[in-house]
Amino acid sequence: MKFHIFLNLYQYACPTLVLGGNIDYSIDMEGRKKSPQVVRLEWGVVELEDGSVFKDVKVFPGGARAWDWGETGTHHMPGIQLADVEELLDHGADTIVLTRGVLGRLGVSQVLIDQLEARGIRVHVAKTKAAVEIYNQLCLDSQAGILIHSTC
Prior knowledge:
The protein is an alpha+beta fold. The chain has helices spanning about 1-15, 80-90, 110-120, 130-140; strands at about 15-20, 20-25, 40, 45-50, 55, 55-60, 65, 95-100, 120-125, 145-150. Strand 8 (about 95-100), helix 3 (about 110-120) and strand 9 (about 120-125) form a beta-alpha-beta unit.
């Protein structure tokens, strides 16, 4: 009984501890929100390390959500807009990876890249598979964000 009470008090004092092995890894060693890694990428499917699955997704320090192109009126051409990227910046991303789609059909303008770089944001642009590899490497030691288009 005393051991059970101690565990309950310990869990209350240390809320990130969950008995059974689940620990909250969303904060890095400096106390910053961690960018979740992509663990699976297939045509039309993106899975993150927490098990969440998307078709197109915005991933940023501390989380992710579906990327609904209709919110900003995004189309393959002219492509990704600054409005699509703002949410990643709002969540503290200092490095942005922009995917062009698996086949490279999603546009990324030089104007957008210049706008982001003028704000001191590092920008990487690549087809989806290569972009996800770049992002997974970057998010190990930076506040990275990525817009993933998982099809064309």
